[in-house]
């Protein structure tokens, strides 16, 4: 019984002391001593002792926190984990009703700095936060004589963001920052925040700030209501690095593949050249794979572009294989050309055929030597006829090969042109929309 009474006495004493300090602050302003600039330490110590409590004389009056931020840098975008890392300059304002003094009584001092850990500070929650804040903390706040407090703090914000990479490297990302507290409102207009951020983010990094939009709303948690400010930070990627390192080299390799069709197929091993080109393009893709973003949700169109370019090179190699097969078709046991094709003179003729003529005078008996000569001439004529037929077949198949090569090359050019127009038009639309 005595123990309970002792605890009750102690609790009553602490409560009375607290009420005394509150009443003294309610009816007395901070005092200053002659020869000192600003309020005295003794008068501020009573305020420091009330650090856990909201600084309001009447607790029914809300303490509204005004918030603004400046987007200083985009530190990283991780498409695989859907994480955006930014660096913000966060500025908070609120009213401290106990930190009030008269400048005339305090040597004209209108503003002082105090340690933030000694004062009550509002709880600001960022709902998209997914990691600890490791930025350097600002230990002081600025207080003017009316009790208005300004706290500038640096914030390394690691937030979740739904990143769309389909239009990479011409992609535009829209990430949400949601700041919540019991009573919070924006200190600046969203246009002013956007303008301040653009001045710092304009000439640095891979990302460019497009705009900062926002709205205020109330979030209901059961019987509790929280004020929230939702910011939409729209950033656009600067694509020059990826255009120079990815698109232009790929376009050059595709151009070389197109120009390789002008190599004469009957005298140059065009297939070996194209196989070497495909091997070089594959090595290029392996080297540049680290520059491409990757997510489980989808593939960027530039990855599809590279895959289609590789497929077109393979199609080009297959076309060369077909032409090479046609050009060497005549060596396969003198196969005849199809009936729908009529042979003509060709650049591939390599033989000059001479038809021998044997003349035997009538009435003269053929000597054995002459009969042997005639037999030799007959064999020579049969051989030359065979060579002439082979030469004609080679010329006809060569002509077929050149016609097919011309036709397939035009089809290949049409296919590449349509593909390039589709890709360029899609990227132009994205650039214009951003």
Automatic annotation (TrEMBL):
Q: Which Pfam families match?
A: Neur_chan_LBD (PF02931), Neur_chan_memb (PF02932)
Q: Where in the sequence is the signal peptide annotated? A: 1-24
Q: TM segments?
A: 240-263, 275-292, 304-327, 411-431
Q: Which UniProt keywords apply?
A: Cell membrane, Disulfide bond, Glycoprotein, Ion channel, Ion transport, Ligand-gated ion channel, Membrane, Postsynaptic cell membrane, Receptor, Signal, Synapse, Transmembrane, Transmembrane helix, Transport
Major site of localization recorded for this protein? membrane
Q: In Gene Ontology terms, what is one molecular function of this protein?
A: transmembrane signaling receptor activity
GO CC, alphabetical: postsynaptic membrane
Q: Which reaction does it catalyse?
A: K(+)(in) = K(+)(out); Mg(2+)(in) = Mg(2+)(out); Na(+)(in) = Na(+)(out); Ca(2+)(in) = Ca(2+)(out)
Annotated membrane topology is: Multi-pass membrane protein
Tell me where in this chain the Neurotransmitter-gated ion-channel ligand-binding domain is found.
54-238
Q: Where in the cell is it found?
A: Postsynaptic cell membrane
- UniProt function note: Forms serotonin (5-hydroxytryptamine/5-HT3)-activated cation-selective channel complexes, which when activated cause fast, depolarizing responses in neurons.
Q: Which family is it part of?
A: Belongs to the ligand-gated ion channel (TC 1.A.9) family. 5-hydroxytryptamine receptor (TC 1.A.9.2) subfamily. HTR3A sub-subfamily.
How the protein assembles, per its UniProt entry? Forms homopentameric as well as heteropentameric serotonin-activated cation-selective channel complexes with HTR3B or HTR3C or HTR3D or HTR3E. The homomeric complex is functional but exhibits low conductance with modified voltage dependence, and decreased agonist and antagonist affinity. Heteropentameric complexes display properties which resemble that of neuronal serotonin-activated channels in vivo. Interacts with RIC3.
The name on file for this protein is: 5-hydroxytryptamine receptor 3A
